[in-house]
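Appendix C: a fully annotated inverse folding record. The material below is reproduced so that readers can follow the format used throughout the book. The structure is listed first as C-alpha coordinates, followed by the designed sequence.
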Protein backbone atom coordinates (compact mmCIF):
# COMPACT_ATOMS: atom_id res chain seq x y z
CA UNK A 1 0.00 0.00 0.00
CA UNK A 2 1.43 3.35 -1.09
CA UNK A 3 0.61 6.22 1.28
CA UNK A 4 1.48 9.85 0.60
CA UNK A 5 2.81 11.35 3.84
CA UNK A 6 2.22 15.03 4.66
CA UNK A 7 5.34 17.19 4.28
CA UNK A 8 4.02 20.36 5.90
CA UNK A 9 2.30 19.05 9.03
CA UNK A 10 3.96 20.67 12.03
CA UNK A 11 5.13 23.70 10.01
CA UNK A 12 2.46 25.08 7.68
CA UNK A 13 -0.27 23.65 9.87
CA UNK A 14 -0.48 21.75 13.15
CA UNK A 15 0.43 18.08 13.28
CA UNK A 16 -1.74 17.64 16.40
CA UNK A 17 -5.19 16.28 15.32
CA UNK A 18 -7.16 18.02 18.09
CA UNK A 19 -5.38 21.34 17.67
CA UNK A 20 -5.73 21.17 13.88
CA UNK A 21 -9.44 20.31 13.99
CA UNK A 22 -10.10 23.15 16.46
CA UNK A 23 -8.25 25.65 14.26
CA UNK A 24 -10.15 24.64 11.11
CA UNK A 25 -13.51 24.63 12.91
CA UNK A 26 -12.69 28.10 14.19
CA UNK A 27 -12.23 29.39 10.63
CA UNK A 28 -15.37 27.65 9.37
CA UNK A 29 -17.55 28.73 12.29
CA UNK A 30 -17.61 32.38 11.27
CA UNK A 31 -18.42 31.82 7.59
CA UNK A 32 -21.97 31.88 6.28
CA UNK A 33 -23.09 28.93 4.17
CA UNK A 34 -24.74 30.31 1.05
CA UNK A 35 -27.54 28.70 -0.93
CA UNK A 36 -25.38 27.73 -3.89
CA UNK A 37 -25.04 24.44 -5.74
CA UNK A 38 -21.24 24.58 -5.75
CA UNK A 39 -19.37 22.60 -8.41
CA UNK A 40 -15.82 23.91 -8.04
CA UNK A 41 -13.85 26.24 -5.79
CA UNK A 42 -10.61 28.21 -5.86
CA UNK A 43 -8.77 28.34 -2.53
CA UNK A 44 -5.29 29.45 -1.43
CA UNK A 45 -2.57 27.12 -0.21
CA UNK A 46 -0.43 29.12 2.21
CA UNK A 47 0.02 28.23 5.86
CA UNK A 48 -3.29 28.32 7.68
CA UNK A 49 -2.33 31.32 9.81
CA UNK A 50 -2.09 33.32 6.55
CA UNK A 51 -4.79 31.88 4.29
CA UNK A 52 -7.03 29.70 6.47
CA UNK A 53 -9.66 32.39 7.02
CA UNK A 54 -9.99 33.02 3.29
CA UNK A 55 -9.99 29.33 2.35
CA UNK A 56 -12.82 28.65 4.83
CA UNK A 57 -15.23 30.76 2.77
CA UNK A 58 -15.15 28.31 -0.14
CA UNK A 59 -14.80 25.09 1.83
CA UNK A 60 -17.89 26.01 3.89
CA UNK A 61 -19.99 25.94 0.68
CA UNK A 62 -19.28 22.30 -0.25
CA UNK A 63 -22.15 19.83 -0.16
CA UNK A 64 -21.85 17.07 2.44
CA UNK A 65 -23.11 14.72 -0.29
CA UNK A 66 -19.81 15.13 -2.17
CA UNK A 67 -18.15 11.77 -2.77
CA UNK A 68 -15.23 12.60 -5.09
CA UNK A 69 -12.86 15.58 -4.94
CA UNK A 70 -10.44 16.66 -7.67
CA UNK A 71 -7.67 18.75 -6.13
CA UNK A 72 -5.66 20.65 -8.74
CA UNK A 73 -2.29 21.54 -7.29
CA UNK A 74 0.59 23.73 -8.41
CA UNK A 75 4.06 22.52 -9.40
CA UNK A 76 6.16 24.88 -7.29
CA UNK A 77 9.49 23.02 -7.40
CA UNK A 78 9.50 21.15 -10.70
CA UNK A 79 9.22 22.38 -14.33
CA UNK A 80 6.26 20.14 -15.07
CA UNK A 81 4.90 19.57 -18.55
CA UNK A 82 1.43 18.05 -18.47
CA UNK A 83 -0.76 17.30 -15.50
CA UNK A 84 0.77 14.77 -13.13
CA UNK A 85 -1.07 12.10 -11.15
CA UNK A 86 0.90 10.05 -8.62
CA UNK A 87 -0.26 6.50 -7.98
CA UNK A 88 -0.86 6.67 -4.26
CA UNK A 89 -3.46 4.51 -2.53
CA UNK A 90 -4.03 7.06 0.26
CA UNK A 91 -3.14 10.61 1.24
CA UNK A 92 -2.39 10.88 4.93
CA UNK A 93 -2.97 13.89 7.18
CA UNK A 94 -3.01 14.45 10.94
CA UNK A 95 -6.80 13.89 10.72
CA UNK A 96 -6.46 10.46 9.10
CA UNK A 97 -6.13 8.80 5.70
CA UNK A 98 -8.11 9.68 2.57
CA UNK A 99 -8.52 7.09 -0.17
CA UNK A 100 -7.32 7.98 -3.64
CA UNK A 101 -10.01 7.17 -6.20
CA UNK A 102 -9.53 4.05 -8.31
CA UNK A 103 -10.41 6.11 -11.38
CA UNK A 104 -6.86 7.51 -11.48
CA UNK A 105 -5.89 4.28 -13.26
CA UNK A 106 -8.02 5.38 -16.20
CA UNK A 107 -7.10 9.06 -15.87
CA UNK A 108 -3.44 8.10 -16.29
CA UNK A 109 -4.29 6.76 -19.75
CA UNK A 110 -5.36 10.23 -20.96
CA UNK A 111 -2.92 11.98 -23.31
CA UNK A 112 -2.55 15.15 -21.19
CA UNK A 113 -1.86 13.19 -17.98
CA UNK A 114 1.62 12.13 -16.89
CA UNK A 115 3.11 10.44 -13.85
CA UNK A 116 6.09 12.50 -12.68
CA UNK A 117 6.91 11.55 -9.10
CA UNK A 118 9.47 14.36 -8.78
CA UNK A 119 6.71 16.98 -9.22
CA UNK A 120 5.30 15.94 -5.85
CA UNK A 121 8.54 15.96 -3.85
CA UNK A 122 8.03 18.44 -1.04
CA UNK A 123 4.94 19.90 -2.77
CA UNK A 124 2.35 21.42 -0.42
CA UNK A 125 -0.43 22.67 -2.70
CA UNK A 126 -2.57 19.51 -2.58
CA UNK A 127 -1.86 18.26 0.92
CA UNK A 128 -2.74 21.56 2.60
CA UNK A 129 -6.33 21.34 1.30
CA UNK A 130 -6.87 17.80 2.67
CA UNK A 131 -7.57 18.67 6.36
CA UNK A 132 -10.12 21.32 5.38
CA UNK A 133 -11.87 18.78 3.16
CA UNK A 134 -11.83 16.22 5.97
CA UNK A 135 -13.50 18.63 8.41
CA UNK A 136 -16.19 19.66 5.92
CA UNK A 137 -16.91 16.40 4.08
CA UNK A 138 -15.78 13.57 6.33
CA UNK A 139 -15.44 10.65 3.91
CA UNK A 140 -14.62 11.24 0.25
CA UNK A 141 -12.32 9.92 -2.46
CA UNK A 142 -9.47 12.03 -3.74
CA UNK A 143 -8.19 12.67 -7.27
CA UNK A 144 -4.92 14.62 -6.77
CA UNK A 145 -3.51 16.29 -9.91
CA UNK A 146 -0.48 18.59 -10.02
CA UNK A 147 -0.97 20.85 -13.04
CA UNK A 148 1.97 22.10 -15.07
CA UNK A 149 2.13 23.45 -18.63
CA UNK A 150 -0.78 21.72 -20.34
CA UNK A 151 -3.31 22.34 -23.09
CA UNK A 152 -6.06 23.82 -20.93
CA UNK A 153 -8.91 22.84 -23.25
CA UNK A 154 -7.78 19.23 -23.47
CA UNK A 155 -7.24 19.09 -19.71
CA UNK A 156 -10.72 20.54 -19.10
CA UNK A 157 -12.15 17.72 -21.22
CA UNK A 158 -10.36 15.17 -19.03
CA UNK A 159 -11.85 16.77 -15.92
CA UNK A 160 -15.31 16.73 -17.49
CA UNK A 161 -14.99 13.09 -18.49
CA UNK A 162 -14.45 11.93 -14.89
CA UNK A 163 -16.58 14.56 -13.15
CA UNK A 164 -20.10 13.67 -11.99
CA UNK A 165 -22.90 15.19 -9.89
CA UNK A 166 -21.29 14.02 -6.66
CA UNK A 167 -17.90 15.54 -7.51
CA UNK A 168 -16.29 18.87 -6.75
CA UNK A 169 -13.12 20.46 -8.13
CA UNK A 170 -10.75 22.26 -5.76
CA UNK A 171 -8.20 24.49 -7.51
CA UNK A 172 -5.40 25.16 -5.04
CA UNK A 173 -4.08 28.54 -6.15
CA UNK A 174 -2.39 31.59 -4.63
CA UNK A 175 -2.43 34.90 -6.49
CA UNK A 176 0.44 37.41 -6.84
CA UNK A 177 3.68 36.96 -4.89
CA UNK A 178 6.05 39.39 -3.18
CA UNK A 179 4.76 42.78 -4.29
CA UNK A 180 3.81 45.73 -2.14
CA UNK A 181 0.32 45.67 -0.63
CA UNK A 182 -1.16 48.16 -3.12
CA UNK A 183 0.51 46.62 -6.16
CA UNK A 184 -0.69 43.16 -5.13
CA UNK A 185 -4.26 44.41 -4.91
CA UNK A 186 -4.05 45.72 -8.49
CA UNK A 187 -2.53 42.51 -9.85
CA UNK A 188 -4.94 40.31 -7.92
CA UNK A 189 -7.89 42.45 -8.97
CA UNK A 190 -7.02 41.72 -12.61
CA UNK A 191 -6.74 37.97 -11.96
CA UNK A 192 -10.03 37.86 -10.07
CA UNK A 193 -11.82 39.85 -12.78
CA UNK A 194 -10.62 37.35 -15.41
CA UNK A 195 -11.98 34.46 -13.36
CA UNK A 196 -15.31 36.14 -12.61
CA UNK A 197 -15.75 36.96 -16.29
CA UNK A 198 -14.62 33.46 -17.42
CA UNK A 199 -11.82 35.03 -19.41
CA UNK A 200 -9.40 32.14 -19.92
CA UNK A 201 -7.21 34.07 -22.36
CA UNK A 202 -6.78 36.86 -19.85
CA UNK A 203 -5.33 34.44 -17.32
CA UNK A 204 -2.24 34.15 -19.55
CA UNK A 205 -1.30 37.68 -18.47
CA UNK A 206 -2.24 37.15 -14.82
CA UNK A 207 0.20 36.60 -11.99
CA UNK A 208 -1.34 33.49 -10.49
CA UNK A 209 -0.26 30.01 -9.39
CA UNK A 210 -1.15 27.24 -11.82
CA UNK A 211 -2.67 29.40 -14.59
CA UNK A 212 -3.29 26.30 -16.73
CA UNK A 213 -5.46 24.75 -14.02
CA UNK A 214 -7.50 27.95 -13.77
CA UNK A 215 -7.82 28.23 -17.55
CA UNK A 216 -9.06 24.62 -17.72
CA UNK A 217 -11.55 25.28 -14.92
CA UNK A 218 -12.84 28.34 -16.78
CA UNK A 219 -13.22 26.33 -20.00
CA UNK A 220 -15.18 23.68 -18.12
CA UNK A 221 -17.35 26.30 -16.40
CA UNK A 222 -18.26 27.85 -19.75
CA UNK A 223 -19.37 24.50 -21.15
CA UNK A 224 -21.31 23.66 -18.00
CA UNK A 225 -22.82 27.18 -17.83
CA UNK A 226 -21.63 27.58 -14.24
CA UNK A 227 -21.75 30.97 -12.54
CA UNK A 228 -18.86 32.41 -10.53
CA UNK A 229 -18.79 34.32 -7.25
CA UNK A 230 -15.98 35.88 -5.23
CA UNK A 231 -16.47 35.16 -1.52
CA UNK A 232 -13.30 36.65 -0.03
CA UNK A 233 -10.02 38.29 -0.96
CA UNK A 234 -7.08 39.11 1.26
CA UNK A 235 -3.34 39.24 1.02
CA UNK A 236 -0.81 38.47 3.71
CA UNK A 237 -0.58 42.21 4.47
CA UNK A 238 -4.09 41.95 5.89
CA UNK A 239 -2.91 39.26 8.32
CA UNK A 240 0.53 40.48 9.41
CA UNK A 241 2.13 43.94 9.55
CA UNK A 242 4.51 43.47 6.61
CA UNK A 243 2.97 45.24 3.62
CA UNK A 244 6.16 45.50 1.55
CA UNK A 245 6.16 41.92 0.24
CA UNK A 246 2.79 40.15 0.28
CA UNK A 247 1.01 37.13 -1.26
CA UNK A 248 -2.59 37.26 -2.49
CA UNK A 249 -5.35 34.83 -1.51
CA UNK A 250 -8.85 34.42 -2.94
CA UNK A 251 -11.89 32.29 -2.22
CA UNK A 252 -14.04 31.83 -5.34
CA UNK A 253 -16.89 29.41 -6.06
CA UNK A 254 -18.27 28.09 -9.33
CA UNK A 255 -21.90 27.09 -8.99
CA UNK A 256 -24.79 25.77 -11.00
CA UNK A 257 -27.58 28.37 -11.17
CA UNK A 258 -30.86 27.32 -9.61
CA UNK A 259 -33.49 26.26 -12.10
CA UNK A 260 -36.84 27.58 -10.97
CA UNK A 261 -39.56 24.97 -11.26
CA UNK A 262 -42.24 27.65 -11.20
CA UNK A 263 -42.26 31.21 -12.50
CA UNK A 264 -43.79 34.21 -10.81
CA UNK A 265 -46.78 33.83 -13.09
CA UNK A 266 -47.17 30.20 -12.03
CA UNK A 267 -47.24 31.24 -8.40
CA UNK A 268 -49.87 33.91 -9.08
CA UNK A 269 -51.98 31.28 -10.83
CA UNK A 270 -51.69 28.90 -7.86
CA UNK A 271 -52.75 31.61 -5.41
CA UNK A 272 -55.69 32.53 -7.69
CA UNK A 273 -56.66 28.83 -7.87
CA UNK A 274 -56.65 28.57 -4.06
CA UNK A 275 -58.73 31.76 -3.77
CA UNK A 276 -61.34 30.63 -6.32
CA UNK A 277 -61.48 27.20 -4.67
CA UNK A 278 -62.24 28.64 -1.23
CA UNK A 279 -64.78 31.12 -2.56
CA UNK A 280 -66.58 28.42 -4.55
CA UNK A 281 -66.62 26.07 -1.56
CA UNK A 282 -67.76 28.69 0.98
CA UNK A 283 -70.42 30.27 -1.25
CA UNK A 284 -71.77 27.18 -3.05
CA UNK A 285 -70.58 24.22 -0.97
CA UNK A 286 -69.00 22.77 -4.12
CA UNK A 287 -65.53 21.77 -5.27
CA UNK A 288 -64.08 24.00 -7.97
CA UNK A 289 -63.90 22.41 -11.44
CA UNK A 290 -61.30 23.55 -13.98
CA UNK A 291 -61.46 21.92 -17.39
CA UNK A 292 -57.86 22.33 -18.63
CA UNK A 293 -55.35 22.73 -15.78
CA UNK A 294 -51.84 23.91 -16.73
CA UNK A 295 -49.38 21.15 -17.65
CA UNK A 296 -46.76 22.13 -15.07
CA UNK A 297 -49.35 21.77 -12.28
CA UNK A 298 -49.87 18.13 -13.22
CA UNK A 299 -46.55 17.19 -11.59
CA UNK A 300 -46.71 14.98 -8.51
CA UNK A 301 -45.68 17.42 -5.79
CA UNK A 302 -46.69 18.12 -2.20
CA UNK A 303 -47.99 21.51 -1.12
CA UNK A 304 -49.49 23.55 1.71
CA UNK A 305 -52.18 26.21 1.36
CA UNK A 306 -52.03 29.06 3.87
CA UNK A 307 -54.90 31.52 4.36
CA UNK A 308 -54.58 34.81 6.30
CA UNK A 309 -56.99 37.66 6.99
CA UNK A 310 -54.61 40.57 6.39
CA UNK A 311 -52.45 39.74 9.45
CA UNK A 312 -53.69 36.68 11.33
CA UNK A 313 -53.60 33.08 10.21
CA UNK A 314 -57.02 31.65 9.30
CA UNK A 315 -55.98 28.21 8.15
CA UNK A 316 -53.02 26.18 6.92
CA UNK A 317 -53.31 22.62 5.64
CA UNK A 318 -51.11 20.50 3.41
CA UNK A 319 -49.10 17.33 3.00
CA UNK A 320 -45.38 16.71 3.25
CA UNK A 321 -45.43 13.84 0.75
CA UNK A 322 -47.14 14.18 -2.66
CA UNK A 323 -50.75 13.00 -2.83
CA UNK A 324 -51.72 12.99 -6.48
CA UNK A 325 -50.90 15.88 -8.80
CA UNK A 326 -50.19 19.42 -7.63
CA UNK A 327 -53.32 20.93 -9.21
CA UNK A 328 -55.69 18.64 -7.31
CA UNK A 329 -53.65 19.01 -4.11
CA UNK A 330 -54.00 22.79 -4.19
CA UNK A 331 -57.78 22.49 -4.49
CA UNK A 332 -58.07 19.82 -1.76
CA UNK A 333 -55.75 21.65 0.64
CA UNK A 334 -57.46 25.00 0.04
CA UNK A 335 -60.81 23.48 1.01
CA UNK A 336 -59.28 21.82 4.07
CA UNK A 337 -57.48 25.00 5.15
CA UNK A 338 -60.74 26.97 4.94
CA UNK A 339 -62.92 24.45 6.78
CA UNK A 340 -60.98 21.69 8.56
CA UNK A 341 -58.08 23.36 10.38
CA UNK A 342 -58.91 22.37 13.99
CA UNK A 343 -57.37 25.59 15.32
CA UNK A 344 -59.95 27.84 13.67
CA UNK A 345 -63.62 28.13 12.93
CA UNK A 346 -64.53 27.52 9.27
CA UNK A 347 -64.22 30.58 7.06
CA UNK A 348 -67.48 32.45 6.39
CA UNK A 349 -68.64 34.29 3.30
CA UNK A 350 -68.29 37.67 5.04
CA UNK A 351 -64.54 37.09 5.48
CA UNK A 352 -63.76 36.30 1.84
CA UNK A 353 -62.92 39.85 0.65
CA UNK A 354 -60.20 40.21 3.32
CA UNK A 355 -58.37 36.92 2.78
CA UNK A 356 -54.89 36.37 1.33
CA UNK A 357 -53.61 33.06 -0.02
CA UNK A 358 -50.20 31.45 -0.23
CA UNK A 359 -49.35 28.12 -1.88
CA UNK A 360 -46.09 26.49 -0.75
CA UNK A 361 -44.85 23.74 -3.09
CA UNK A 362 -42.34 21.46 -1.36
CA UNK A 363 -39.31 19.45 -2.35
CA UNK A 364 -39.19 15.83 -1.17
CA UNK A 365 -38.07 15.66 2.50
CA UNK A 366 -34.55 14.34 3.09
CA UNK A 367 -33.34 12.51 6.19
CA UNK A 368 -30.95 14.97 7.85
CA UNK A 369 -27.54 13.60 8.81
CA UNK A 370 -25.48 15.73 11.17
CA UNK A 371 -22.29 15.37 13.19
CA UNK A 372 -23.15 17.33 16.32
CA UNK A 373 -25.53 19.93 17.72
CA UNK A 374 -23.84 22.86 15.96
CA UNK A 375 -23.94 21.01 12.66
CA UNK A 376 -27.67 20.33 13.12
CA UNK A 377 -28.44 23.96 13.92
CA UNK A 378 -26.52 25.14 10.88
CA UNK A 379 -28.09 22.69 8.43
CA UNK A 380 -31.71 23.50 9.27
CA UNK A 381 -31.49 27.27 8.83
CA UNK A 382 -34.08 28.60 6.34
CA UNK A 383 -35.33 25.10 5.56
CA UNK A 384 -38.62 23.39 6.29
CA UNK A 385 -38.15 20.91 9.13
CA UNK A 386 -39.99 17.75 10.17
CA UNK A 387 -39.25 16.55 13.70
CA UNK A 388 -40.14 13.01 14.76
CA UNK A 389 -39.76 11.00 17.97
CA UNK A 390 -41.67 8.00 19.29
CA UNK A 391 -44.75 8.74 17.18
CA UNK A 392 -44.70 12.47 17.94
CA UNK A 393 -44.35 14.48 14.75
CA UNK A 394 -44.51 18.15 13.77
CA UNK A 395 -43.54 20.29 10.80
CA UNK A 396 -42.67 23.92 10.16
CA UNK A 397 -42.54 25.41 6.67
CA UNK A 398 -39.49 27.51 5.68
CA UNK A 399 -41.56 30.71 6.02
CA UNK A 400 -41.89 30.10 9.78
CA UNK A 401 -38.24 31.10 10.29
CA UNK A 402 -39.22 34.78 10.23
CA UNK A 403 -40.86 34.32 13.64
CA UNK A 404 -37.70 33.04 15.37
CA UNK A 405 -34.44 34.69 16.31
CA UNK A 406 -32.37 31.50 16.54
CA UNK A 407 -32.35 27.85 15.38
CA UNK A 408 -32.59 26.77 19.03
CA UNK A 409 -35.86 28.68 19.46
CA UNK A 410 -37.16 27.26 16.19
CA UNK A 411 -36.54 23.65 17.28
CA UNK A 412 -37.83 24.22 20.81
CA UNK A 413 -41.10 25.55 19.42
CA UNK A 414 -41.32 22.66 16.97
CA UNK A 415 -40.88 20.21 19.86
CA UNK A 416 -43.75 21.82 21.73
CA UNK A 417 -45.90 21.65 18.61
CA UNK A 418 -45.19 17.89 18.50
CA UNK A 419 -46.23 17.50 22.14
CA UNK A 420 -42.66 17.14 23.41
CA UNK A 421 -40.54 19.07 25.89
CA UNK A 422 -38.75 22.13 24.48
CA UNK A 423 -35.25 20.72 24.78
CA UNK A 424 -35.94 17.22 23.46
CA UNK A 425 -34.53 18.11 20.03
CA UNK A 426 -31.10 17.55 21.59
CA UNK A 427 -31.83 13.86 22.23
CA UNK A 428 -30.28 11.06 20.18
CA UNK A 429 -33.63 9.41 19.49
CA UNK A 430 -34.91 12.42 17.53
CA UNK A 431 -35.20 12.20 13.74
CA UNK A 432 -35.10 15.26 11.52
CA UNK A 433 -36.09 15.70 7.88
CA UNK A 434 -35.57 18.87 5.85
CA UNK A 435 -37.21 20.23 2.72
CA UNK A 436 -37.33 23.45 0.73
CA UNK A 437 -39.78 25.40 -1.37
CA UNK A 438 -39.80 24.68 -5.10
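Designed amino acids, in order:
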Amino acid sequence: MKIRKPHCAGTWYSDDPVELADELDGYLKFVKKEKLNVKAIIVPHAGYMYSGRTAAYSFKQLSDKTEKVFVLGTAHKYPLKGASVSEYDYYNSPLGKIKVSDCIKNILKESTIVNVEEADYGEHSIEIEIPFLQRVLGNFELIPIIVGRVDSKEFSEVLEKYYDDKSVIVASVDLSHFHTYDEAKKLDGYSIDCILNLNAEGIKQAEIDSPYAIMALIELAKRKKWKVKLLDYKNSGDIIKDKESVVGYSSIVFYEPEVKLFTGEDKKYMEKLAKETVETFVKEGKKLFVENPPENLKKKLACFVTIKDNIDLRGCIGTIEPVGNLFDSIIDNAISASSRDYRFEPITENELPDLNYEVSVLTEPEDLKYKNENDLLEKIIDKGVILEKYGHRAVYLPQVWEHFSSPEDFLSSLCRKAGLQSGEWRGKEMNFYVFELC
